[in-house]
Amino acid sequence: MVYVWLSVLCSVLVSVLLKLARRFGIDIGQAVAWNYAVASVLTTLMLRPSLAPLQQSGVPWLALVGLGVLLPTIFLALGASVRHAGIVRSDAAQRLSLLISLLAAFVLFGEKLDALKAAGCVLGLLAMAGMVWRAERGAATNVLLADGMPRWSYPLLVFVGFGVIDILLKRVAAAGLALGTSLQAMFALALLVAFAIEITRCLRGRARFTARSLAGGVLLGLLNFGNILFYLHAHRALPHDPALVFASMNLGAVVLGALVGLWLFRERLSRLNLAALGLALLAVALLTHGWEVAAH
What we know:
Elements: H1 2-20, H2 28-47, H3 61-85, H4 87-96, H5 98-108, H6 115-132, H7 153-174, H8 179-203, H9 211-237, H10 242-264, H11 271-295
């Protein structure tokens, strides 16, 4: 289980880095862009993928391109969510995004809906609603942020975005493309999109590339790739317990994210938010158990 906990730690440290980015003068957009450069290099060195399969027929290019666009943009949404809504809400929203892929499994892939999964879906949706709810004090104008977005919109973007990413990942996996090859293709496409966004910002005078943001991006890339690598090692170490790995990863990330957000950053949650956090843990547990029962 050590690989699971290392993966959880890397995942939560990504949120911590995003939370501290502005304090240390790190531009999140640039860090995200450099992150994919680091991830691409590490994929080459650690997984040694073959790019020959990308020249064959049947490559799911539509899903890969979709991932190339969504990965950096939703990463930016995660950064905004962590900054404006906090680590607790953001990590919970990211883990509850499995509801999106689960609903897609029922609608698109013909998976059967049993009582456990149905209960998990209902509790998960209630948890998501409770997590994004945040009573705003003061004038009504304070509800909107400087960019005109309401605070609750960022966790919702994370929830939907990571769910769609998971659906596209399943499409890529179903096409039979090797993991290393698909990761390299996704990271390369995401790198192009992320740098296109940042170069556009620089040309408009809204940002400039800095060594500090580069350093932040290198660290972000190491943590992001570490999360993926340790998760893969966990599945290899426990080949007969995929549900255990999946549940431990998601529940662990929610719990550790909540502890870090509440104790380290003093994030304030209402009683409704705390109840929703409990519902989120229960929802993930029910959904995971439902998948385990279905598998057997």
